[in-house]
Amino acid sequence: MESATETAATTAKNLGDKAAHAAKNIAKVTKNAFSPIQASYSTMPGMIWNAHSLLTKALDSGTNGISAGLFSKDLRGVMMLTNFQAGFIWAGNVGSGILLKKKEGVNEWSAPCAMGLAGPSFGFLAGASYKDVMVFIYDSDTMTALAGEVGARGGGLIELTVGSFGRNASVDANLSNRGAGSTVSVAFTKGLFGCLGVDFGAAMPRNSVNTQFYEKDISATQILNGGEGVAIPEGSDTLIDLVYEKLGMLTEGKTYEPGVEEQERVQLALVKANSEDNEQK
């Protein structure tokens, strides 16, 4: 007989599978409507590029940014996702991004682990929104849950977004075949979306993306715990060094404006990430 946790994980996966197809179609409409500049959602370089873009927005002095208080000593990890959501009464959402584990006692981070999110939302929902989401993880159980082969994410969500970039904050409960925990999320949102409902979907490592990037079979646990041989491949030319640097700036409550040299590097990385995605199709 399945345990309660295994049943929840199986249910979440089934829900996520059904929602993913609808959400992917929704995402095409949402993206075309609001056309943010984004890299590929299906390769590690693209996900890292999108994470860097999120951190750059958070550091911009023209935004409210992200509170340094979220980077407390209890912080265990962060997940940075690009997420699309749309619907009326019932909505689908799909997301992709990277998960980083914070090394204990120091302001250093693990190698990136590719993650995916898909699932439905229920309640009073209307509209469509595109979101860059930063998830703050404060306990080891949650990190363990997210590294599981199948994860589940359920939580209450209250959001109102009208045009430009808005803010969304939620507290979620994570379940998987390896544990349970909680998260706090902050989002830069573009679109038009009103929501008072419950969000429930599947969050899990994207093993095929991780295998392709690290050029070998590797688990999320190995990546996040820095197992033997886990290293950014030489010549990958991602923006992960800038991601680490900007996480440090946010920890210190700083703001930052990219210089010309960085902007040129970011543009080249965007072209390369999207070119790699096209080669795989």
Note the main sheet: 5 strands, antiparallel
Specify the overall morphology.
globular
Distance between the termini: 41 Å
Radius of gyration: 18 Å
Q: What is the residue-mean pLDDT, rounded to a whole number?
A: 75
Question: How would you classify the helix and strand content by structural class?
Answer: alpha+beta
Strand coverage percent: 35-45%
In helices, the fraction of residues equals 25-40%
* Total of DSSP H or I helical runs spanning 4+ residues: 7
Order of helices and strands: HHEEHEEEHHHH
Instruction: Please tell me the total number of domains.
Output: 1
What low-confidence regions span 5 or more consecutive residues with pLDDT below 50? 1-5, 7-35, 162-167
Overall strand count: 5
Written description of the protein model:
This protein is α+β, with helices and mostly antiparallel strands and 281 residues long. The protein has one domain. It is 36% helix and 36% strand. It is built from 7 helices and 5 strands. Strands 1, 2, 3, 4 and 5 form a 5-stranded antiparallel sheet that branches. The radius of gyration is 18 Å and the shape is globular. The N terminus is likely disordered.
Topology of this protein?
Elements: H1 4-34, H2 44-59, E1 77-101, E2 113-137, H3 140-146, E3 151-162, E4 166-176, E5 179-205, H4 207-214, H5 220-225, H6 240-251, H7 260-280
Antiparallel strand pairs: 1-2, 2-5, 3-4, 3-5, 4-5
What are the key terms here?
about 280 residues, alpha+beta, 7 helices, phosphatidylinositol binding, globular
